[in-house]
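for the recovery benchmark. tokens below, seq after
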């Protein structure tokens, strides 16, 4: 599965309660559940259909190892701007490729701060500014897709917005450099993207890379991520 948040940077401990906010169809939710550290994972997304797909995904793989009664998973539909959780109820929160979709990201960040325990960690990823700006410039259709991106974040702007809620950034990296040209190609051929042989071929390449993970493309992407990574990922700690 393609994950953007690095599990090792979350410093997970057995029995922690972890929220995947905007879990979609569950790529990070499943990675957390099958991580070697048993944790209690909760997934929330605005789309009930995506939540159903995420739930079904828990039955597609063998049970995680090691077994632990402290490993569990719950999914629910809900609004990130009005979270149905009490104050200080999570040890870790991740929010991957979500904030660029919501009408009021500051309200979402306020809710995250409210439900995260003091000293807890928060990981956020959003599309990187300049690769995303190219997409917007190439295609009005990309900009206006229902449920799509409503803003482009600059890294320092996102950092400032999160830190204004009582956090301190301690890490940053970029991800998915090989995906940037794919989205540029889609945007350049927006009206023909479903029938384009170029888009279809590049998609098959990315699917092959995801499944096979050959050292050549993994090394190439690691080298390119600081230059043209599609996503920027930041890690924050809430003040104690």
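predicted aa per position
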């Amino acid at each position: 599965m393609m994950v953007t948040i690095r599990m090792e940077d979350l410093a997970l401990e057995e029995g922690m309660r972890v929220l995947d906010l905007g879990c979609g169809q569950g790529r990070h939710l499943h990675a957390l559940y099958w991580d070697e550290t048993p944790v209690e994972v909760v997934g929330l997304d605005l789309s009930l259909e995506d939540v159903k797909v995420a739930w079904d995904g828990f039955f597609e793989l063998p049970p995680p190892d090691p077994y632990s009664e402290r490993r569990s998973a719950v999914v629910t539909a809900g609004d990130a701007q009005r979270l149905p959780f009490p104050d200080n109820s999570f040890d870790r929160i991740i929010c991957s490729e979500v904030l660029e979709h919501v009408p009021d990201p500051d309200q979402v960040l306020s809710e995250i701060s409210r439900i995260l325990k003091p000293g807890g960690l928060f990981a956020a990823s959003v599309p990187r500014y300049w690769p995303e700006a190219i997409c917007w410039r190439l295609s009005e259709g990309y900009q206006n897709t229902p449920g799509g991106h409503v803003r482009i974040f600059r890294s320092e702007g996102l950092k400032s917005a999160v830190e204004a809620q009582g956090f301190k950034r301690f890490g940053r990296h970029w991800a998915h450099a090989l995906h940037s040209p794919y989205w540029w190609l889609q945007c350049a051929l927006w009206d023909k993207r479903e029938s384009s042989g170029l888009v279809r071929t590049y998609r098959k390449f990315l699917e092959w890379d995801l499944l096979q993970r050959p050292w050549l493309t993994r090394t190439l992407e690691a080298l390119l991520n600081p230059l043209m990574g599609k996503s920027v990922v930041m890690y924050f700690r809430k003040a104690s």
